[in-house]
Design brief:
It is built from eleven helices and nine strands. It has a single domain (6-199, 211-273), classed as 2-enoyl-CoA Hydratase, Chain A, domain 1. It is 46% helix and 14% strand. Helix 6 packs across helix 7 (167-176). By secondary structure, it is of the alpha/beta class. Strands 1-2-3-4-6-9 form a six-stranded mixed β-sheet, with helices on both faces. A three-stranded mixed β-sheet has the order 5-7-8. The chain is globular. The protein has helices at residues 30-45, 67-70, 75-78, 123-129, 146-149, 157-165, 167-176, 182-188, 200-212, 216-250, 256-273, and strands at 6-11, 14-19, 51-56, 112-116, 119-121, 133-137, 141-143, 180-181, 193-195. Residues 80-98 have low confidence and may be disordered. The chain starts with 5 loop residues before the first strand and ends with a helix.
Length: 274
């Protein structure tokens, strides 16, 4: 498999973007955080593309920020976020001018399907939440460990997770750091579909073909309206998260030595849950 941290393939109007650090469970290092938004933007600009699919190379969707890099150099925390607007890493709001907020991803005009093939944890959960809707493999797991890592969310978790599962379930996920399985995610409204692992990408491709058979210009226009409605309903929530993130940074923010100390415990705990 290619050494590139993110892969882009385009086939018959559908762009598949694949996180490609399987040995690191597709954790987000600085190189990935630079390449991922660039490839998403490239696919969104391509007139030959109508639908985007975001997935990970097995066995994981995304384990969040790479804790090894976070606990050493911290380069991934400072890596440029979506839109390259001057904010950094999870401290950024990921908002592109004139478009929907997508955490680490740029705004896109075209539908973005998240194909969650395995664990999606913390920043990986935020990455999944940034998609328009989600299809989960039966091997998928979802969790929020911001409170265990010691990093304040900045990619929309405090807005998007309660929207998906309700505030009480979101609070439980954040407070406990426990992973939920795919059937629970479906019952809670976090994902739209759960399919056998081997059928994940074919099923997403079938949905993409259904989208392509509609009036694509009208789908894009209605999605733009969805974005405007969400801005009215949730704009203050995004600002509240940004403010909480700023205040956390001002009070001392990330301490690499703390992350390094906690990372082995967090990784071991996650492995035990899987």
């Amino acid at each position: 498999m290619s050494a590139e941290p993110v892969l882009l393939s385009i086939d018959d109007g559908v762009a598949t973007i694949t996180l490609n650090r399987p040995r690191a469970r597709n954790a987000l290092d600085a190189a990935t955080l630079r390449q991922l938004p660039a490839l998403v933007a490239e696919a969104d600009r391509d007139d030959a593309v109508d639908v985007l699919i975001l997935t990970g190379a097995d066995p994981a969707f995304c384990a969040g920020l790479d804790l090894k890099q976070l606990g050493s150099t911290g380069d991934n925390f400072r890596a440029g976020d979506a839109g390259d607007a001057g904010d950094t890493g999870e401290s950024g709001n990921g908002e592109a001018e004139g478009g929907r907020r997508r955490g680490p991803l740029p705004a896109t005009a075209k539908p973005l399907i998240g194909a969650v093939n395995g664990p999606a944890v913390t920043g990986g959960l935020e990455l999944a939440l940034a998609c328009d809707f989600l299809v989960a493999s039966d091997l998928a797991r979802f969790g929020d460990t911001h409170g265990r890592v010691g990093v304040h969310p900045g990619w929309g978790l405090s807005v998007l997770l309660p929207q998906a599962v309700g505030i009480r379930r979101a609070r439980e996920m954040t407070a406990t750091g426990q992973l939920i399985d795919a059937p629970t995610a479906l019952a809670w409204g976090l994902v739209n579909h759960v399919v056998p692992h081997i059928e994940l990408l074919p099923f997403c491709r079938m949905l993409a073909d259904e989208i392509r058979s509609a009036d694509r210009a009208m789908v894009h226009r209605i999605f733009e309206t969805y974005d405007r409605v969400e801005e009215v309903l949730s704009g203050a929530g995004w600002e509240a998260e940004r403010d909480g993130n700023r205040r956390w940074l001002q009070s001392g923010g990330l301490r690499s030595e703390d992350v390094a100390e906690r990372s082995s415990t967090i990784i071991r705990r996650g492995s035990d849950q899987l």
